[in-house]
Amino acid sequence: MYRSIFLKLFNRKFSKKEKVQKFGDLKNEVFLFSWISEYFQKAHRSDSSHVITDKVCNDLDFDELFMYLDRTKSKVGQQSLYSRLRLIDVVNQIDAEDENLIKRISADENLRASLEKQLSRLNSTEAFYISKLFQDKIIKAPSWYQFLPFLSIFSFLSIISLLFSNVMVYLIPILVIVNMGIHYRNKNNQQHYISSLPELLKLHSVVKNLHAADHTIFNEIEVEQSISTLGKLKKHFALFQMENKLQGDASNLVWGSVEIIKILLLLEPILFFRALKKIDSNQDHIIHLFNALGRVDMLYSIASLRSGADKFCIPNFTEAKTGLQATGIYHPLIENCVENDIDTHGKSVLLTGSNMSGKTTFIRSIGINLITSISLNTSFASKFSLPKMRLSSAIRISDDLMNDKSYYFEEVSTIKEIINCSERDNSYLFLLDEIFKGTNTIERISAGKAVLSYLARNNNVVFVSTHDIELTDLLKDEYNLYHFSEVINGDYVDFDYKLKSGKLKTRNAIRILEINQYPNPIIDEAKTTAIHLEMEQK
After folding, report:
1. What residue stretches are annotated with the DNA mismatch repair proteins mutS family domain (predicted)?
2. Domain range spanning residue 334?
3. Please, where are the H alpha helices in 406-519?
4. Residue 47 lies in a domain
């Protein structure tokens, strides 16, 4: 089971050798998460959206999950997909029109080829900058900007006058120095946009070409108007498109000649702030094109993901009180992952089992499938029915040494956040692994029982793993009991990773110590102590 693709995904973070990505394949490229996540970090949070927190992301290995899910062809689509997975909108979901386009992409090779060709034009790192044009505050023109057109005209006339007279010959050097100062001072402002403006033109071109080829690809009515409006602005960005190309040109002579002309006539600062003014007044149209292309690339990614998945299904969304029902559910990041079935019957789930038996992996698979089901309308199972719930977790907890917090205090703080979530109007899925393991047995069991009973109210569903068998008796009326177990064959421990009903009835920890050849005195004393403790409990 643990022959996973985690290592492959990790290596792809740093791989420099790329190959052509075929439909359904995993990507083989460097994932720049600081850039990929920036659009999400600045995105508007609507009342209907739920943020997958950094804590949940860490618990569910979200970066590795994203590298598996992401089959987009453009950086715009990549940012949109990341944002959709972390900013779950329980209202704006994959609808019937989206599913129809996913099916068309899956079935029509010509459509796929057209999408791949156009979307790939926005796959350079510079395309990450497009979102800055509507998420960041646009730089305003300084007070002295209004004098630049007059200074530009005066500089031009002064140069022309040299053809007829030498009167201005002494003034020209002063004008050149002044203009050069203005020109290079403006370079600092321009650096923020030198990449985004050419990529905006490319975004417009890609959306325009796709829309012209097939009017049904974009279902947003604003797209056609935005294509037309931004098309009229292209002339304002032409200089910066040329600047971007010249920077990559091998001919320094061409670049130098153009630079001299721009300095003498102050073309850059004049056209730059004029272009920014146009962007500021047309941000809604830029957003429309960005969202439209991001949506199409995301649907392409979903189609490719489904093509490459071992198994998937379209989820069935139900009422919160019905709980979760899954057939053949599995963890998508684990090769040959054992599939499991579960029906919560509207109740929460308490899992028991030894270490490495599959408890935490199963809990993570439930959380991951909740995210992909609601965000991508795709579940890694044969059948999956679930309510549209929000998600919170406490799986990975560690000492916060920087803030002088012990493990237990860090755990208490995390569980308190989950309790706060449980008191809200929205239904939650809570994932917990070994609650309160940072304290002594009696208080751990007592506090754990109280918290787990509290969390299971208000149509919330809890999936919790524990080694404390005592909790199964205390919570048997409120929780469904399941367990994972292993089989010891001679000197080998075999795990089947199959979910079983009821509580764990066998204990093999000391036997596993024997298999690993612990000294006999340790084994004998452990057995004696275990018998003594069990008799005390009776």
Report:
1. 346-531
2. 311-506
3. 407-422, 441-455, 470-474, 509-515
4. no
Same domain, 292 and 324: no
Do both 323 and 217 map to the same domain?
no
Q: How far is CA 285 from the centre of its chain?
A: 25
Examine the domain organization and report whether 225 and 326 are in the same domain. Answer: no
Question: What's the one-letter identity of residue 153?
Answer: I
More confident call, 242 vs 472: 472
Sign of CA dihedral 38, 206, 81, 27: negative
Going by C-alpha positions, the residue among 134, 154, 289, 128 that lies closest to residue 210 is 289
Q: How many CB atoms lie within 10 A of CB 272?
A: 25
pTM of the full structure: 0.86
Q: Are residues 462 and 322 in the same domain?
A: yes
d(CA 125, CA 451): 47
**How many domains does the structure of the chain reveal?**
2
Residues in a beta bridge with 352: 466, 483
The pLDDT of residue 2 is: 42
pLDDT digits (tens, 9 = 90+) for 267-311: 778 788 888 888 889 999 999 999 999 999 999 999 999 999 989
Distance between CA 37 and CA 86 in Å, rounded?
Answer: 9
Report how far residue 27's alpha carbon sits from residue 367's, in angstroms, rounded to the nearest whole number: 23
279 shares its domain with 323:
no
Q: What are the tokens at 493?
A: 């421990």
On whether residue 467 sits in a domain, the answer given is yes
Residues 254 and 343 in one domain: no
Tokens 């003498």 belong to 264
Query: How much is the average pLDDT of 7-20?
Result: 53
For residues 218 and 176, state if they share a domain.
Answer: yes
For helices 267-281 and 283-308, the axis angle rounded to 10 degrees is 70
**Residue 279, helix vs strand vs coil:** helix
Q: Are 222 and 288 in contact (CB under 8 A)?
A: yes
Tokens 């309308």 belong to residue: 377
CATH of residue 492's domain is: 3.40.50.300
Is 351:359 a contact under the CB 8 Å cutoff?
yes
Q: Which two tokens stand for residue 71?
A: 């089959």
Look at residue 251 in the predicted model and tell me its pLDDT: 54
- Of 349, 350, 384, nearest to 368 (Cα)? 384
Q: Angle formed by the axes of helices 407-422 and 441-455, to 10°?
A: 20
- Across the chain, mean pLDDT equals 85
In this structure, the strands spanning 325-329 and 340-343 are antiparallel
The label of the residue with tokens 């579940």 reads 379
Indicate if 276 and 423 belong to the same structural domain: no
In sequence order, which residues have a C-beta less than 8 Å from that of residue 74 and are 6 or more positions away? 119, 120, 121, 122, 123, 127, 206, 293, 297
Asked if residue 269 belongs to a domain, the reply is: yes
- Identity of residue 209: N
